[in-house]
Amino acid sequence: MGEVEKRSLSLFSEGTRIAADLFTPHGDRPDTGWPAILLCHGWGGLKEHLNVYARRFAAAGYMALTLDYRGWGESDGRVVAMSDAPPLMVAGEVTMKVRILREIVDPIDQVADIRACLAVLAAEPGVDPARIAIWGSSFGGGHAVWIAGNDDRIACAVAQIGGYDLPAQYRPQGRARAIDKALGRIDPAVPQGIDRVGELKGTPDLARMREHSQLDAAARIRVPTLFIDAEFEELNNRLENGWFAHLTVRQNGVPTEYVTFPGKHYDVYDAYFEPSVAQALRWFGTHL
């Protein structure tokens, strides 16, 4: 593996400080700048979990950026007023008690954080802003699809072992939570631990998940997109997620491939780490 430089960044997403790591290839920068990859981790992941991928991508000649979503890892938590706070009727500074929320899985907030990082990456002096890719894994694979379908700064995408929408069995609960939140029946709006999805870490904001369809975004993708799945995926139905998204993108007339490895969800991170990285680098080398 070639030498790479790691630099820690602090940036802002809707006023919240976001921690990120930027990896730069070793050697002379191309005249137009390095191509770049923004990496999105999964449900309860941290940027540290993806830095091994970022280093590999940087060693291959790409700038690579990882991040902690708000409320996770080294990023600030979400600030909410206490339920008994006085009405906030005057603009300006005020001193008040607040509550800090952490480890909430909110896809809309996470997409906002990704787009803030994308803005920083595109403005980085060493980056060619015309050659930026998005790579996401697990829940982040869904984010990669959403960003690729909604942001014209993306030149190509890789979505790995993705789950793209709230499973059907949680949708009635998501609608009920939306009512609870709007009427102030729960305090704060997403109490930690109130809901769970399987054994996954963190509290899902089911109301927000219900209104945010990553899968629908596949119909808007107009850039080359690679889907990587586990053949025996146990967390998501891959035929209704990765395979369906691949077929949707194919209808758009842009290059797309669907690749599987003979394992379960988490096997892609260890047993099939090397071949999955090789597939992603092949895709970036062709389309970025």
Short description:
The protein has 288 residues and is an alpha/beta fold. The chain has helices at residues 47-59, 107-123, 139-150, 171-183, 206-210, 214-217, 242-251, 273-287; strands at 4-13, 16-25, 34-40, 63-67, 78-81, 98-101, 104-105, 127-137, 156-160, 203-204, 225-230, 256-261. It is built from eight helices and twelve strands.
Radius of gyration: 19 Å
Distance between the termini: 21 Å
Describe the largest sheet. 8 strands, mixed
Order of secondary-structure elements? EEEHEEEEHEHEHEHHEHEH
The percentage of residues in β strands lies in 25-35%
Helical residues, percent: 25-40%
Count all strands and give the number: 12
- The residue-averaged pLDDT reads 95
Number of helical segments with 4 or more residues: 8
Sheet with the most strands: spatial strand order? 1-2-4-3-8-9-11-12
Describe the structure.
The structure is a single chain. With 288 residues, the protein is an alpha/beta fold. 31% of the residues lie in helices and 25% in strands. The chain is built from eight helices and twelve strands. The chain has helices spanning 47-59, 107-123, 139-150, 171-183, 206-210, 214-217, 242-251, 273-287; strands spanning 4-13, 16-25, 34-40, 63-67, 78-81, 98-101, 104-105, 127-137, 156-160, 203-204, 225-230, 256-261. The strands form three sheets. Strands 1-2-4-3-8-9-11-12 form an eight-stranded mixed sheet, with helices on both faces. Strands 5-6 form a two-stranded antiparallel ribbon. The longest helix is centred in the middle third of the chain and has 17 residues, at 107-123. The mean pLDDT is 95.
